[in-house]
Design goal:
About 35% of the residues lie in helices and about 20% in strands. It is of the alpha/beta class. Strands 2-1-3-4-5 form a 5-stranded parallel beta sheet, with helices on both faces.
């Protein structure tokens, strides 16, 4: 079973994404911020990280900076519609970029491309 670390300070956003991921038989670990996610990544391996950009303790790219070897598994989620609007050069190092609200079809396509997860019918 594939492991996904879902990082978002917003409980509702995290819950919606978790439900979509679990419907695809993915094992989901939730973190409400960068500090909690960092603690998990120090002791656990994950197949994919889906991380919100704006959080109170740090932004999602700060998490990636702490674990740069995970960039090919790192998906940044934000309400900003254009990558260029984020004033941070590190955004170019993420594997994928999703705009909130994340639709299930968009998420399924991404998971199929990155993890080989079959698209649900």
């Amino acid at each position: 079973m594939r492991n996904v670390l879902l990082v978002d300070d917003d409980t509702v956003s995290r819950t919606v994404l978790r439900i979509m991921l679990e419907r695809l038989d993915l094992q989901v670990v939730e973190a409400d911020g960068v500090a909690m996610a960092s603690g998990h990544l120090e002791t656990n391996d994950v197949d994919l990280i889906i991380c919100d950009y704006e959080m109170p303790d740090a932004n999602g790219l700060d998490l990636l900076a702490a674990f740069p070897d995970l960039s090919d598994r790192f998906v940044l989620v934000t309400g900003t519609t254009e990558r260029s609007e984020l004033d941070d050069d590190r955004v170019d190092s993420v594997a994928a970029y999703l705009t909130k609200p994340v639709g299930s079809d968009e998420l399924h396509r991404l998971l199929q491309a990155m993890l080989g997860v079959p698209i649900a019918s």
